[in-house]
Amino acid sequence: MKIRNRLDSKGFTLLELMLTLLLSSLLILTYATIVLQSVQYWQYHIEQVRVHENLQYALHYIEKNIRQFNQQEIQYIPDMKQIISRNSQGELSYMDFSGENLNQWNTYLYYQKGNRRLLINRKRENNVLAQDIDQLIIKEVQSGALIEVSISSKDTQGKEHTLKSQIRISPRR
């Protein structure tokens, strides 16, 4: 009669309830771990894309403005890390990549090494073009004809990202 009484009883026993609770907790923990790892992975890749996009934008802007300079008079001065040419009004314009704070009225673009920023100097406004720039290196590949611009930055994980481009500074003959 005891066996029959037990089979006829309705509801859950304490053991069944504890097993159900244990299994559902394991499922929730597994799901939570997967979701948290996915979010961390997503954040890491968003940071990678942000750094790379920042570098690409800065390098593209440098290239574009070097190409807009008067190609007959453009000159690269390696000691000062400056590119000098005349603008459309015939005035001398500079691009200063030395890292010093050359904030003159005719400096079109300059790099601040201490603040890790690349700035545009239009009418003394000093607008930030790109931030978190660790290095901006200009090398002369062919004297007076071809330069290589290398720009690098580190992400929050400490991984360094570098982009390079070669730019012709003299007209082709």
Can I get a quick summary?
It contains two helices and nine strands.
Helix content: 25-40%
Order of helices and strands: HHEEEEEEEEE
Question: DSSP helix count?
Answer: 2
**Biggest β-sheet description:** 6 strands, mixed
Spans of at least 5 consecutive residues with low confidence: none
Radius of gyration based on Cα positions: 30 Å
| Mean of pLDDT | 84
Secondary structure tally: strands: 9
**SS content category:** alpha+beta
Through-space gap between termini: 109 Å
Shape: rod-shaped
Strand content: 25-35%
Strand order of the largest sheet: 1-2-3-4-5-6
Describe this structure in words.
The protein has 173 residues and is of the alpha+beta class. 36% of the residues lie in helices and 31% in strands. The chain is built from 2 helices and 9 strands; from the N terminus they run ααβββββββββ. The protein has a 6-stranded mixed beta sheet with strand order 1-2-3-4-5-6, covered by helices on one side. The chain has a 3-stranded antiparallel beta sheet with strand order 7-8-9, covered by helices on one side. It holds the Pfam family N_methyl. This is Prepilin-type N-terminal cleavage/methylation domain-containing protein. It comes from Isachenkonia alkalipeptolytica. The chain crosses the membrane at residues 12-34.
